Amino acid sequence: MPRRVMLLSMLLLLSPSWFCDTGSAQLDGAQPSKIAVVGAGIGGTATAHFLRQHFGPEVQIDVFEKEEVGGRLATVTVNHNDYESGGSIIHSLNLHMQDFVKQLGLKYRRSVAGKTAVFDGDAVVLEETDWYLLDLFGLWWRYGISFLRLQMWVEEIMEKFMRIYKYQAHGYAFSSVEELLASLGGSGFINMTQRPLSDSLVELGVSQRFIDEIIAPIMRVNYNQNVSIPAFVGAVSLAGAQTNLWAVEGGNKLVCSGLLKLANANLLQAQVTSISPLHTGETVQFQLGFTTDGETHSEAAYDVVVLATPLQDGADSGVRFHGFSPPLAPLPGAYQHTVATVVHGYLNTSFFGFPDPRLFPFASVLTMDAPELFFNSAASVCPVNISAGFRRKQPQEAGVYKVFSPRPLSKAQLKTLFRSYYSVQLTEWLAYPEYSSGQGLPPVELHPNLYYLNGIEWAGSAMEMSSVAAKNIALLAYHRWNRQADMVDQKDLMHKIKTEL
């Protein structure tokens, strides 16, 4: 969706001092007494954890969540087993997520091998085999060196992105998503948020066939969009399609509940409805209005508020801003609907060209961008707790499948994909932004001491992106509060860090 420029223009007119001089720290140097975090997904719970690290044990941290802890990390139950219905994979280079798992004493989930195919609506056009070298030869034979060019491109981007961990380990923060990206990859990363992935790949020398048969299916399953998605988002998606992926035993949402406990945060099962500034002399605090069990309440005197929930129109955050001067402009853009349907039944392998299900060798099927295809992917899924003797169900057996689609599946569509089924559970997500090239990036600072975490998703949506944003906001809030301007938006950080060492 095209993004309006009014908000960005207004923000550009605001000097950095606007964020520092209007009550952004107590004059006596005292630490904040109360902090509110709205949203208990991975972004909100990680923020609570990092805020506790930086502000210490005395500050009261309240986390508001209207639904389940975990947000888009969620599970559904089928036959007494739980299955991921939301975010299900984590990249091996996601250092914050790895650190969370280690601190919380969680375990990596045992992986269960399974082959993937790409379906064009008529036939399987690409399939994995049991032999890695044979797969490599097949890619080279069909696409030339396109896959090598793509792999080198993604690895270069990931190598630059990994700098964020050094910056954050040294305590540096960024006041905007643009500043963060520029510190990692200069103008190149900023430009990648403004141009289509397809253009970048063509310029890279990747063949159109490779884009249609490999890249487009990955974009469809990861972001429910096509290759017009911005290049940086596309790179994040492609990094998440690599083989070195993992998940948490018992469900990824355990990270969120664990981080809340680690942060010693107060969880309030409530829907935040309003945020208002409270002016006391030179100090600005916030009052939050919220509802719980149908009753309206309010809680005042929060020194810092972090919004870790989508605020764009249609995102159903329910949060309204009152009494701000100037008024906070609405954030342009929208979140898109993606449907995850978990089906317990018998896959109709004939639809994919395999009349005998015993000959169907694939655990997951991705789809090309074809008008007649009503789903993005269909995959046999494993429970979040995998016993030592677990084996994946064969296609001729009743198994549990997760189907991603842009809209809820009709009965006719379910009958197309499944010969028969015992149960169907549908989860409709506002999963990620509706990406378009040329869009701007939402602000991180909405007002002094009022921060917006989910703006990072407009650069790329993933668990680790939210974790990086959480660490950045905790550092930024700490430095703003303590007037440490030299730790925010510093240039040439790689050189600066080497000099410090």
TrEMBL record:
- Tell me one GO molecular function of this protein: prenylcysteine oxidase activity
Q: Which cofactor does it need?
A: FAD
User: Could you tell me which Pfam families the record lists for this protein?
Assistant: NAD_binding_8, Prenylcys_lyase
Q: Which residues form the Prenylcysteine lyase domain?
A: 126-490
The yes or no answer to whether the keyword Transmembrane is present is: no
InterPro entries attached to this UniProt entry = FAD/NAD-bd_sf, Prenylcys_lyase, Prenylcysteine_Oxase1
In the UniProt record, the signal sequence range is: 1-25
Source domain of life: Eukaryota
A single GO BP: prenylcysteine catabolic process
Keywords, in A-Z order:
FAD, Flavoprotein, Glycoprotein, Oxidoreductase, Signal
Q: Which spans of this chain does the record mark as coiled coil?
A: none
Q: Which residues cross the membrane?
A: none
Q: Which family does it belong to?
A: Belongs to the prenylcysteine oxidase family.
Name the UniProt record assigns to this protein: Prenylcysteine oxidase 1 like
What is the protein's species of origin? Gadus morhua (Atlantic cod)
